[in-house]
Amino acid sequence: MTVDHVIPESRGGLSEFGNLCFCCRRCNEFKGSKTEAEDPVTGEVVLLYHPRRQNWHEHFAWDETGSLIVGLTAVERATVPAPNMNDLIIVAARRRWVSVGWHPPE
Fold first, then answer.
1. What are 86's strand-pairing partners?
2. In the chain, what is the greatest distance between 2 CA atoms, to the nearest angstrom?
3. Where are the domains of the chain?
4. What is the pLDDT of residue 105?
């Protein structure tokens, strides 16, 4: 895990608690300075999920295998691919975690 600026410093985000969160390093590097993305269902450009302001369980779910993140709303459908949250490497790791009962989190 790494510390991520929800709103990147390059976009005016501050290094303060309300703008920082833990993030998978691989996802963080892929997200870069993105703050918005296109919902693949509606084509609407929306702001990415804000972990300090929005509840994960209201916007995301795990698929039946417990290894893929599914976006339930426009914001989350856009957020999942933006930082590549279902990258093949992390999905493979999640499958191993599921097999030993470590995942998905409650």
1. none
2. 42
3. 2-99
4. 86
Exposure string over 16-54, b if 16+ CB within 10 A, otherwise e: eeebbbebbebbbeebeeebebebeeeeeebebbeeeeb
Q: What is the pLDDT of residues 9-50, one digit of tens each?
A: 999 999 999 999 998 888 888 888 999 999 999 999 999 999
What length does the chain have? 106
The two three-digit tokens of residue 3, written as one number:
């510390």
Round to whole Å and give the CA distance between 30 and 64. 26
